[in-house]
Design a protein that fits this description.
Strand order of the largest sheet: 3-2-1-4-5-6-7
Number of helices: 16
Number of strands: 13
Order of helices and strands: EHEEHHEHEHEHEHEHEHEHEHEHEHHHH
Distance between the termini: 48 Å
Helix content: 40-55%
């Protein structure tokens, strides 16, 4: 059985869990460290239709027992630096169960020579105990290689989001009335220093000041310790600056905001892997990102769907905002390109990637054989149902069943 261990049942984690459950059936189970957390105060309890447990409720002893009783257990551990990580590593080491570390991009902070040596030594020990690594995007793959982890031990496995079947271009691309309104920019995230939302607020104000009119407006979604100071900054800027604060929103409300927006702006000093970039592209919205956003770097195909500005560069971002606001045709092309990139990364692709991971260990190869057998059986059942339906239609056409 595949045992995916991760922190919270966040929307993108539920997406990949459901996808893997659909593919592997009862051979997949998710273990969430917690049901909720104050940093993600979703009001509704997630309705998961896949097998799952909450470690904070059932305990790690239950995790240990289930792994011990599973002869084909393979563990996918999301993250590598938390109490959940340490306990999971201890359990899998004791039981000699293959474990793959699913990691987003480590923070590229400056470290002392001693700290850097200790960290590199730890990662190499981790590489010896792990069966391999799943890296969130190509930049993370390269970073892990630079830390001394073998490239052959790493599989690119980014985060995954739902790809809505229905989407549309920004309203201003097809509606003359909408085109006369300010460019609507959306920023999403916790109000903490690393997000640098003040860069977006100042850039919108500067673009408006240079244009001599309200060229763009910023919608800020989220909450956190910096909210009061960000609101004070927005109020202190000239009146033609336009920033409104929505506070914390449920994921369906964020999707609605994306639909109403013309583009996403993300100004973080560093983002390990910003899922909102994937959500925006799935909605067909271009992204104005800082050079510190790993997800944007990973998804950039040079099509204009993503535009980068140097970290903290208000003037460059203001110029980009002015350019997008003045050229609806360019915005339309960027929107189409953004959606096209998203369509290259449907959640179903996660199964192909994970098959590659499982093939590296004996237990995984057993799971792959069972998955193949299950798929053949389902195809056979579907074929029988199709033949029965054709027979019934033929009998009806011939005068009814006797």
């Amino acid at each position: 059985m595949i045992h995916l261990v991760t922190w919270l049942p966040l929307p993108y984690q539920r997406t990949v869990c459901q996808t893997l459950s659909d593919a592997y059936g009862a051979a997949f189970v998710a273990w969430f460290a917690e049901r909720t957390h104050e940093d993600f105060p979703y009001k509704s309890d997630p309705q998961n239709s896949f097998i799952h447990h909450y470690l904070s409720e059932v305990g790690y002893w239950e995790f240990f027992k289930q792994l011990k009783s599973d002869p084909d257990a393979v563990v996918i551990l999301s993250g590598w630096s938390s109490p959940m990580t340490n306990k999971s590593l201890l359990v899998t080491t004791l039981l000699r169960i293959p474990i793959f570390i699913w990691a987003d991009h480590p923070h590229p902070r400056q470290r002392s020579p001693v700290s850097a040596f200790v960290r590199r030594f730890y990662l190499r020990l981790l590489a010896l105990s792990a069966s391999g690594f799943l890296a969130c995007g190509t930049p993370t793959v390269e970073h892990l290689v630079s830390l001394g982890i073998k490239r052959s031990d790493i599989v690119n496995f980014p985060y995954w989001v739902e790809l809505p079947s229905e989407w549309s271009l920004p309203k201003r691309c097809a509606d003359e009335d909408a085109a006369r309104r300010p460019l609507r920019l959306l920023a999403v995230g916790r109000h903490v220093p690393v997000k640098q939302f003040e860069v977006a607020i100042r850039a919108v104000a500067l673009a408006n000041e240079k244009a001599g009119k309200k060229l763009a407006e910023l919608i800020l979604v989220g909450d956190g310790p910096q909210r009061a100071s960000l609101e004070a900054l927005a109020h202190s800027l000239p009146s033609n600056a336009s920033t409104s604060f929505r506070g914390w929103l449920e994921i369906t409300e964020v999707y609605r905001e994306l639909k109403e927006a013309d583009a996403l702006v993300i100004t973080s000093r560093f983002e390990a892997y910003a899922v909102v970039v994937l959500d925006a592209m799935a909605a067909g919205r271009p992204v104005l990102a800082s050079a510190g956003v790993t997800a944007a770097l990973d998804r950039d195909e040079g099509t204009g769907a993503i535009r980068f500005h140097p970290i903290g560069d208000v003037e460059c971002l203001a110029d980009q905002i002015a350019l997008v606001a003045s050229d609806d045709e360019s915005l339309s092309r960027a929107s189409l390109a953004s959606r096209a990139t998203a369509e290259n990364w449907p959640p179903s692709r996660a199964v192909t990637f994970l098959d590659q991971v499982l093939s590296k260990v004996k237990q995984g190869r057993t799971l792959l054989k069972a998955k193949q057998h299950r798929s053949s059986r389902l195809r056979g059942t579907a074929k029988i149902a199709e033949e029965l339906e054709l027979m019934e239609k033929s009998a009806v056409a011939g005068g009814g069943l006797s």
